[in-house]
Predict the 3D structure of the following.
Amino acid sequence: MTAPRRPGLLTDIGAAVLALVLVGIAGWLGKWQYDAWQAHRDAEARDLTGVAAVPLQDVMGSDDPFPGPDLGRPVEVSGEWLDGGFWVADRTYGDTDGYWAVAPLHVGDAAVLVVRGWAAEPDDALLAAAGAADVVGWIQAPEGSLVTDADPTDDVFPEIRVADAVQRVDVDLYSAYLISQEPAPGLEPAELAALPEPGRFTGVRNLLYAFEWWVFGAFAAFIWWRWRRDATAPEVVEVDQPVAR
């Protein structure tokens, strides 16, 4: 025959409390690692467009590669407009297709390309820029998807590429361009082109640790459930049977 069995009250309560503590700790540590993973991604993809502008020279030098973490940061420059401006096709303003007006600004011993604004159609009068200028703009990485220029002889480019623009000026160019926060007269504001995106594997170790802790918590809960089931399972009791004569 069988008889129910049950662990002692203190043992039962102690096991339940231990299981809850282990599951709680594992859950909290998993959440902490998950938040760390998210923080890594947020830090990499942080939006710098609203911070105070800093001098361009504090972000990069004229011979430096583009500083990826500073994509979208406002910078300020002062210099003289140079000849060699051009239009960039296939740029939108709202829902309308148009062109960006780009001009090189001589800064120190180099020049930086500045998007001065947007226009529906190319216009030499709107493209012209001369004299001294103080510009505050968002720093952007040069484009380079290898789009073919249908007519290399005109002033309309398919992209902002330093290799193309350097042929139009007599000084070196920064490996970056700026989108002016204030459009030039007759132009509309150019929309910000890009913000950084987090890498696929940014903080992935923290994410894996988070899952590891959650699995540990689930395992602790399973062990408690299995122990509770075994501890309360009916116990088989052997009964002496009379011997037949």
Remarks:
- The longest helix spans residues 9-44.
- Residues 66 and 175 are 6 Å apart (CA to CA).
- The helical segments are 9-44, 56-59, 124-127, 162-165, 204-231.
